Amino acid sequence: MDLAQLERQARGKLEPGAYAYFAGGTDDEVTAAANPAAWRRLRLRPHVLRDVGEVSTATTLLGTPVSLPVMVAPMARQRLGHPDGELATQRGAAGSGALAVLSTHATASIEEVAAVAPDAPRWFQLYVHRDHSLAEGLVARAAAAGYGAVVLTVDLAVPPNRERELRTPLELPEGVGLANLPPLAGEDVRERVGSNFDPSLTLQTIDWLRGLSELPLVVKGMLRGDDAAACVEHGAAAVVVSNHGGRQLDSAVSTAEALPEVVAAVAGRAEVYVDGGIRRGTDVVKALALGARAVLVGRPILWGLTCGGAAGVRDVLEGYREELERDLALCGVPTLDQLSADLVAMPGRLGT
Ligand code: FNR
Ligand code: LAC
Fold first, then answer.
1. Distance of CA 178 to the CA centre of its chain
2. Which residues are catalytic?
3. What gap in Å lies between CA 317 and CA 70, rounded to an integer?
4. CA separation for the pair 263, 225 (Å, rounded)
5. What is the DSSP string of 56-70?
6. Using one digit for the tens of pLDDT, what is the confidence trace for 136-166?
7. Strand 70-72 to 294-297 pairing
8. Probe ligand 2: pick from 105, 158, 187, 197, max atoms within 8 Å of CB?
9. Residue 29, exposed/middle/buried by CB under 10 A (0-12, 13-18, 19+)?
10. 225-233 and 203-210 helices cross at what angle (nearest 10)?
11. What whole-number distance in Å separates Cα of residue 182 and Cα of residue 140?
12. What letters, b where the CB count within 10 A reaches 16 and e where it falls short, cover 34-47?
């Protein structure tokens, strides 16, 4: 797997504004850069003389069997990368036995995405708008279309300062409109968030959403143990340690640094996932050893989608699988449930 090369190829195919939108972060992109760097700084302490004749990457996510502890992160406007957009992403994920999360800001409808791979596991990511009836409609549609969970994203209260996007603006071509929402004010992300997103979300929002359907609720955008514990106490079935790929608060802590605190605070009461800068099988090993049940991958999926549609997405996921299988074998850990924090070198976890 050569994700740097894949990104270069994708960059060559994308409009400059679309590349800036996919690749960028906020302000000086400190956190966007810190995410992959923090995983890379961690060192592994592999076991030897453990039978690794057979290695399995299979697990369950909220009870749903998946063949890979790598999910496709929810990402907006995927038709900017490929004409089949989210449909191709869902096909590619299904081909790999991986779970894909569909964004509220998708350019294909909830129902169309479900129809391309009816039996594949998939969740729906929710942004709560000021008009709460929009969330009620989206959650009802997701439940009816067989999505297995609602992933509430909570780190986008106000518009982000994406200076790369300001320098290289995104010109929205035809056909990349948001397929699941009525026409709303605001073309680009900043305007849409500023005009429409509800900045007054609280823990009571979780209570309200839990009442809208039977679907389990996953809360995405945690960087602190106390917040994660509060979400779990309000009934979240899982939390995602995430700084939105460095696209929200710049200088936010990297997710590798935040993960152990969240795992400790949740204390087994809910599943914990993590995303941001996970670019190698060894990064997945580190995240799972530190207590995540699975990871989500963002931008590499977009590079695969841009270069090769569904097959490109599947190739990226298969790249993670191949690396993860080899890395687990080299760590002397044949199954994911045998990963534990002592596999990661102390002290200071992030020290080199
Ligand atoms: C995102 N992300 C995101 N998250 C979310 O909850 N809803 C969304 O609509 C989007 N949209 C989106 C668009 C693009 C272009 C990117 C790159 C990211 C954040 C995403 O789910 C995830 O948290 C990060 O992308 C993970 O970091 P990496 O793997 O991209 O470093
Ligand atoms: C983004 C929003 C849409 O990161 O989640 O661009």
1. 19
2. 244
3. 8
4. 7
5. B--EEETTEEES-SE
6. 999 999 999 999 999 999 999 999 999 999 9
7. parallel
8. 105
9. middle
10. 30
11. 15
12. bbbebbbbbeeeee
Q: Is the pLDDT of residue 349 over 60?
A: no
Dist. CA 16–CA 165, nearest whole Å = 10
CB 239 within 8 A of CB 228: yes
Query: What burial class does residue 106 get, using C-beta atoms within 10 Å of its C-beta: 0-12 exposed, 13-18 middle, 19+ buried?
Result: buried
Q: Hey, what amino acid is at 55?
A: V
Give CA–CA dist 316/27, Å, rounded: 29
Residue 33 has pLDDT above 70, yes or no: yes
Task: Express as a percent the part of the chain with pLDDT over 90.
Answer: 90
The confidence score (pLDDT) of residue 352 equals: 42
Question: Is the pLDDT at 350 greater than 90, yes or no?
Answer: no
Q: Which of 86, 188, 247, 299 gets mutated to test ligand 2 (max ligand atoms within 8 A of its CB)?
A: 247
Per-residue tokens: 205:
């929002």
Q: Which atom of ligand 1 is nearest to the CA of 103?
A: 9
Question: What is the token pair recorded at 78?
Answer: 């995927």
Centre of ligand 2 to C-alpha 330, Å, is 36
Amino acid at 177: G
Residue 46 structure tokens: 């592999």
275 lines ligand 1 (CB under 6 A): yes
What would the mean pLDDT of 41-56 be, rounded to a whole number? 97
**Residue 83, preceding bond cis, omega within 30 degrees?**
no
Contact (CB, 8 A) for 73 and 101: yes
| 344 alpha carbon – ligand 2 mean position (Å) | 32
What average pLDDT is seen over the chain? 95
- Provide CB contacts within 8 A for 346, sequence distance 6+: none
